[in-house]
Design goal:
The complex is a heterodimer of chains A (about 270) and B (about 300). Chain A is mainly alpha-helical and about 270 residues long. In chain A, about 70% of the residues lie in helices and about 0% in strands. Chain A is built from 10 helices and 2 strands, in the order H-H-E-E-H-H-H-H-H-H-H-H. The two termini of chain A are about 35 Å apart. Chain B is about 30% helix and about 25% strand. The chains are: A mainly alpha (about 270), B alpha/beta (about 300). Chains A and B meet through helix 1 and helix 4 of A and helix 1, helix 2, helix 3 and helix 6 of B.
Chain lengths: ~270, ~300
């Protein structure tokens, strides 16, 4: 029943394990009913609430509030399916000993991270596919006007989701139980939403808030989303006087690359390491 | 057992070297020594049980051997490599039956096994594994709905999925009911029959006696004795105790020659009867308690 081999084939590649991880992560996500409902419903509900209450408001540049808010809530939704979902999931998996098993199997951390990222990209796409029609047909928010704006929407969403994933992996290393990590992650996400101009026009926020927000991905993600959804003349009302696509890409890519490098080195499979 | 200057460890991975070789292993947590110069050798193909009370250092030893815990000092070779630096190719040759969960409670047993098959280049077929651990009828059941014993069996299946040469079992039957324990023991015997080396930790004496070719008793961070279960504590076992009542109290004479003591005793009692007379020898539990220095463990 057992074959004792002295020469074994090499272990499966990181890419093969990563692919298997994406599959299992998606399957587990889909079976976690609460998480599915929350991830998909939150942006839609916020859109409905804010759209109904402040739907008549007009922001500087003649932009109707729902149009401005769609950019913010899309960004928040991405943060939810990436940063919040990943941070809490990893803490829970570590507590249940699932990560310990991966470590004992010699799983490369990169394969585990890639599994999370793949799952996040798919769930984020599904979430946005639900949100955009609600905004378009419920609140008359125009969708990106041409292919160029759709491309902007695409790369901003993808980079935002990946940087959120990295931030989630990093934050899962916080000490404490899984439930305390969940609390910290949620609190951080809420504060970051206010600082990053999700609920209020970013240029109207105090300077120090803007500067804190500029360190994290959400501010750039929100700004990038505005550049996809808002008319060109709205760019003049940004703090920098333009959409800053180059800087947005730079900050988000830096988060992904530096974040992955840091996480691969600091990632803990177990709660306490001796 | 004295700690001598450790000789260089063999580095070959040939069939005749030890599966596990440990010399002078030390590990402290916060200044408190958990392992204090532990020596250990597990031969290829044997089942070795590390027996000891809670906190004796069993789990720490296993974790060092699995390469998931750093050691402070000592030499360690597992399948010819140092676990602290060994790579994935080495990891593929060892199997661990851990307490941790599989991939998620929402997966079925079959989905869990199919998923983890992707992590090894030599997976045993899922149906073969299900049959080996007796989970065929639970194959489509979600892990969340398995009983404790069934989860342990799934853990065993995952531990041997990659056809390991050496399997670690850390307190595998803790919390199992007697029926599940006996089923589990059969699983371990099947593994042995296939030529797999097994290193298990336990604090159950009967489990060690049932499964192990050799038992190592660990106490105070050291291995205090290594022997086949029946020979454990041989000098202690030769010691019998003759007890009887005399003058309203108990007399107890420890001796290696109980027959001689009895002859003298009977000769001194011409009326033939010696009240409350017994001759006892220490059983495995007495020997174990004496070895680990537990209170009340002196068999004499």
């Amino acid at each position: 029943m057992t074959v004792l081999t002295t020469t074994r084939p090499a272990p499966p590649s990181t890419a093969r394990i990563a692919l298997a991880r994406v599959g299992v992560e998606l399957r587990l996500f889909a079976r976690e009913r609460q998480q599915v409902v929350f991830s998909f419903a939150y942006p839609v509900v916020m859109m409905v609430v804010f759209g109904s209450v402040l739907g008549g408001d007009v922001l500087p540049g003649g932009v109707p509030f729902p149009q401005y808010f769609l950019a913010g809530i899309a960004a928040t939704g991405i943060m939810l399916t990436s940063f919040q979902a990943v941070g809490t999931a990893i803490a829970a998996e570590r507590e249940a000993g699932q990560l310990e098993r991966l470590q004992l199997l010699g799983t490369p951390p990169a394969a585990y991270f890639a599994g999370k990222a793949g799952q996040v990209l798919v769930t984020t796409a599904a979430q946005l596919a639900l949100l955009l029609p609600v905004a378009r047909y419920g609140y008359d928010v125009p969708l990106p006007v041409d292919l160029g704006h759709w491309l902007t929407f695409g790369w901003v969403a993808a980079l935002g989701a990946l940087s959120g994933t990295v931030l989630g992996i990093a934050v899962s290393a916080l000490p404490g139980s899984a439930s305390s990590v969940t609390t910290s992650v949620s609190a951080f996400a809420i504060v970051l939403q206010f600082f990053s101009g999700v609920f209020f026009a970013f240029p109207e926020l105090p300077g120090w808030m803007q500067q804190v927000a500029a360190v994290f991905p959400l501010k750039w993600l929100t700004q990038g989303m505005r550049s996809a959804f808002l008319p060109e003349q709205a760019a003049g009302f940004e703090v920098a006087g333009g959409w800053e696509h180059g800087r947005t890409a730079l900050v988000l890519v830096a988060w992904v690359i530096i974040g992955v490098m840091v996480c691969v080195r600091t990632f803990r499979w177990r709660r306490a390491d001796g | 057992m004295t700690t001598t200057e450790a000789a260089p460890l063999p580095t070959t991975t040939g069939g005749d070297t030890a599966a596990v070789l440990v010399r002078g292993l030390r590990k402290s947590y916060g200044g408190k020594a958990v392992l204090d110069g532990l020596d250990l050798e597990v031969r290829r193909g044997e089942c070795f049980a590390l027996l000891g009370p809670n906190g004796a250092g069993k789990t720490t030893t296993i974790e060092v051997l699995e390469g998931v815990r750093r050691r402070d000092a000592g030499e360690v070779a597992v399948l010819g490599e140092d676990p602290a630096t060994a790579g994935r190719a080495w990891r593929a040759r060892i199997g661990v039956v851990s307490q941790g969960e599989g991939a998620g409670q929402a997966l079925s047993v079959r989905e869990t096994l199919d998923h983890f098959a992707h992590y090894t280049s030599t997976p045993r077929p899922t149906d073969e594994l299900l049959a080996a651990v007796g989970l065929e009828e639970k194959a489509e059941t979600r892990v969340a709905r398995l009983s404790g014993g069934q989860r342990r069996r799934l853990a065993v299946a995952l531990g041997v999925q990659g056809r390991p040469e050496l399997v670690f079992l850390d307190e595998p039957t803790t919390g199992m009911d007697p029926v599940a324990r006996r089923q589990f023991w059969q699983l371990v015997r099947d593994l042995r029959a296939g030529g797999t080396t097994v290193l298990l930790t336990t604090h159950y004496l009967d489990e060690a006696a049932e499964l192990a070719d050799r038992v190592g008793v660990i106490a105070g961070g050291r291995l205090v004795e290594v022997a086949p279960p029946a020979e454990l504590g041989a000098p202690l076992r030769r010691q019998a105790t003759v007890r009887w009542r005399e003058d309203g109290g108990w007399r107890a004479v420890p001796t290696e020659t109980p027959a001689a003591v009895l002859r003298d005793l009977l000769a001194a009692s011409p009326h033939g009867e010696v009240p409350g007379l017994t001759v006892t020898r220490p059983d495995l539990e007495d020997v174990y308690l004496a070895l680990v220095g537990a209170p009340g463990g002196d068999p004499r």
